[in-house]
């Protein structure tokens, strides 16, 4: 006979078994599925985009979704996130961070599946995704044009965006997303795209330069339809210090 454990439903919480006290066989606890869903934000030409797949398998066949799939029984969840993203989109060795865990009982029509969200922010120009496995297509879509996604992926995307926006207010971003030499307007456009806010040009310039984060170069922009602006590059040592200590990016 399978070993049993007795569980108590917290006061005020409805039990799916409709009784306040119950016994469940241990084997019931090993009938859950575990998955990961990857939120990959891309930055390109002053626009923030999201990497989506067109599902080529049930459930929700033909719908837009985040790259995600089930974790193998013998697989570490972080390893699974890398594998699933590679299998579906061809993107490999991408640094990703966990966001939240989603465990709604009815979030997957096939049964109980608990998923962990991951997110990353990359330069689109440095990656070439392509559909593979059961994905019918892989697309970069403007964040403000994303339709209703399969499963609860719209919620996972919303939460990941909030976490990204909180992060960029306390850690400098741009080192991996901008070219080595850039104008202050390029950096401002990056922050405005991620935070969905507009900044006064003078205030932004003053705030950024006060951090001593940038090295002013004796170079200006070339081949631009306006007055060439001064170019800058990041001070790597100072950049790493600010990431370690944290900073407040508030204008």
Automatic annotation (TrEMBL):
Domain of life: Bacteria
SUPFAM superfamilies: Nudix, Winged helix' DNA-binding domain
Keywords, alphabetical: Hydrolase
One Pfam match: NUDIX
Record-annotated Nudix hydrolase domain positions: 31-165
Keyword Hydrolase: yes
Signal peptide annotation: none
CDD domains: NUDIX_NadM_like (cd18873)
InterPro entries: NUDIX_hydrolase-like_dom_sf, NUDIX_hydrolase_dom, WH-like_DNA-bd_sf, WH_DNA-bd_sf, WHD_NrtR
GO MF, any single term: hydrolase activity
Matches recorded under PANTHER family: ADP-RIBOSE PYROPHOSPHATASE, SLR1690 PROTEIN
Protein name: NUDIX hydrolase
Organism per entry: Croceimicrobium hydrocarbonivorans
């Amino acid at each position: 006979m399978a070993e049993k454990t007795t569980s108590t439903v917290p006061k005020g919480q409805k039990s799916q078994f409709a009784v306040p006290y119950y016994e469940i066989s241990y084997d019931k606890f090993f009938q859950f599925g575990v998955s990961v869903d990857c939120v990959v934000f891309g930055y390109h030409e002053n626009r923030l985009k999201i990497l989506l797949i067109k599902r080529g398998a049930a459930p929700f066949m033909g719908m837009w979704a985040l790259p995600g799939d089930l974790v193998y029984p013998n697989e570490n969840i972080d390893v699974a996130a890398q594998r699933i993203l590679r299998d579906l989109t061809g993107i490999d060795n991408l640094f990703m961070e966990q966001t939240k865990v989603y465990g709604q009982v009815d979030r997957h029509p096939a049964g109980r599946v608990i998923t962990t969200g991951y997110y990353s922010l990359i330069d689109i120009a440095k990656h070439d995704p392509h559909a593979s496995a059961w994905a019918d297509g892989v697309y970069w879509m403007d964040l403000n044009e994303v339709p209703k996604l399969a499963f609860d992926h719209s919620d996972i995307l919303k939460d990941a965006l909030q976490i990204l926006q909180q992060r960029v207010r306390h850690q400098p971003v741009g080192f991996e997303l901008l070219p080595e030499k850039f104008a202050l307007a390029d950096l401002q456009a990056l922050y405005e795209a991620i935070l969905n806010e507009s900044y006064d040009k003078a205030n932004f310039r003053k705030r950024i330069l006060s951090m001593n984060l940038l090295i002013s170069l004796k170079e200006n922009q070339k081949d631009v339809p306006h007055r060439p602006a001064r170019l800058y590059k990041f001070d790597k040592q100072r950049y790493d210090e600010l990431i370690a200590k944290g900073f407040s990016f508030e204008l």
